[in-house]
Amino acid sequence: MVLLSDNKNREPINQSREVVIRAKNLGVSFQTGYRKDDYKSHVFNLFKKNKDPRENKVVWPLRNIDFTGYKGEILGIIGSNGSGKTTLCKILSGILTPDEGEVYVNGRVSALFSLGMGFKKELTGRENVYLNGMMLGIEKHKIHEFIDEIHEFSGLGKFLDKPMKTYSSGMKARLGFSVAAFLEPEILILDEALNTGDLSFSRKAAEKMRELVTKAKMVILVTHSLRYAAKNCDRLIWLEKGTIRATGQPSEIVEMYQESVPERTRKPRKRLEIEKTNANVKERTVVKAENLGVSYHDKKDKFWALKDLNFDIKEGEVVGIIGHNGAGKSTLCKLMTKILSPDQGTLTLNGETTALLGYGTGFNSQLSGRDNIFLNGMLLGIPKEKIENDYQNIIDFSGLKKAIDKPVKNYSSGMQARLGFSIAATLQPDIFIIDEALSTGDLSFKQKASEKIQEMMEKAKAVIIVSHSMSFVEKICTRAIWIDKGEIVFDGDPEEAVKQYKLKYDQTKAAPKKKKRKKRRKKKIETTSNE
């Protein structure tokens, strides 16, 4: 059943199931302009030629929200960036108080917003498990009881005892989910928390969510992955412009949502409608790595995050970097942006590098989106005059016109991704590095971003993209480098790279099942012998 929602058409209540969450006429408002805690933004008025003349006004990011959540279900929430998904999650978890209406929540809520919220980068992963668990209201002895299971499930190995500043966004997502899922939540809210996870971990997380709802009360999952939502959720809520557009069976809601995407971005199979990138590769080398290596030291041992990397990137290439979480992809990006220095070998860059390392890198959460355009642009080394010239283009491309005067702390991760990409891409860098920064983008924006990347190849020297989306890599990239355990496994045609990568994953996934079948056969033989 699909229910189109409006004020006169409330969601029917199922009296036969236990109600865990009920929202009635829920609404949240904010006032545009600068708040008292946004005093820093006044400084950035100096960077703009003309002050925005618009008066302060009240905006409702959510209004007239009515829905019921039932025990034992995985409830998915989908919608474009800025539709109100994160705001709704913050209300349900008690971070925000509604300005109108009421919400009933029967149970203790554990919420994981984006990746690694609440983690301290100077502490190790293990220390952050305890810190994060206690922030969720879990007693220390309970965390200690589950620490080994959290470690094993996260798949972080030795990294659990490394500082979190050495983690990629995907590794933070793994640990954040593992903490939230294993510490026995009654209601688990995941707001785009799995978007940076690799294929293997996403499937593990889906299985864990199914297990959770048999023991706890319910799981609420916010995601831009429509396929993931359709496969793993029992019911979907589609939010649009702060209201519920429809609720119902996942496959039906997904189809309705996809059909709402503008015609130019749709294909019969609802995939990105964009031609494969045509490479115009030149002889000039833009990036050259020779025996490149990065190591981390602690009291116990020395660990190589990257070792003996050798590759050249030519002008005109779009290079995809693939691999599981913890493979070394983000470390390589940090080397190319000079955030890190190599411990061995050399890295030569011929051109100015602009990087988007995750969404919202360099944003000041207290400032508005407008002010962060200037702040972020200058952090990227762009002259103020160029930012002023491209200012309106950035706003237009981001699609955040209505939210641009809102403090970034109120943006969802998808909105931050839109703005971050729009700033970096519009300002036309020589070498553009994108590290998982589009993982939270909705379908429409991914289409625009894909087209923009291809357009940039006429002016930029090279684009380097870290992504867990294999279809994105196959379509957009002219070449793929697969990194595993800090070493290059494959370097060449993106379709062949993805094929080998998936093949290894399928073999890895099949191994535990084969082992289990072998154990069952052995047990059966022993039982028969005893009889």
UniProtKB/TrEMBL annotation:
Protein name from the UniProt record: Teichoic acid ABC transporter ATP-binding protein
Entry's family note: Belongs to the ABC transporter superfamily.
Biased composition annotated in UniProt, kind: Basic residues: 511-524
Region (Disordered) residue spans: 509-531
PANTHER family registered for this protein in UniProt: TEICHOIC ACIDS EXPORT ATP-BINDING PROTEIN TAGH
InterPro entries xref list: AAA+_ATPase (IPR003593), ABC_transporter-like_ATP-bd (IPR003439), ABC_transporter-like_CS (IPR017871), ABC_transpr_TagH-like (IPR015860), Bact_Polysacc_Export_ATP-bd (IPR050683), P-loop_NTPase (IPR027417)
ABC transporter domain span: 41-266, 287-510
Entry annotated with the keyword Cell membrane: no
Keywords: ATP-binding, Nucleotide-binding, Translocase, Transport
A GO molecular function held by the record: ABC-type transporter activity
PROSITE patterns: ABC_TRANSPORTER_1, ABC_TRANSPORTER_2
Species the sequence originates in: Anaerobacillus alkalidiazotrophicus
GO cellular component terms listed in the entry, alphabetical order: membrane
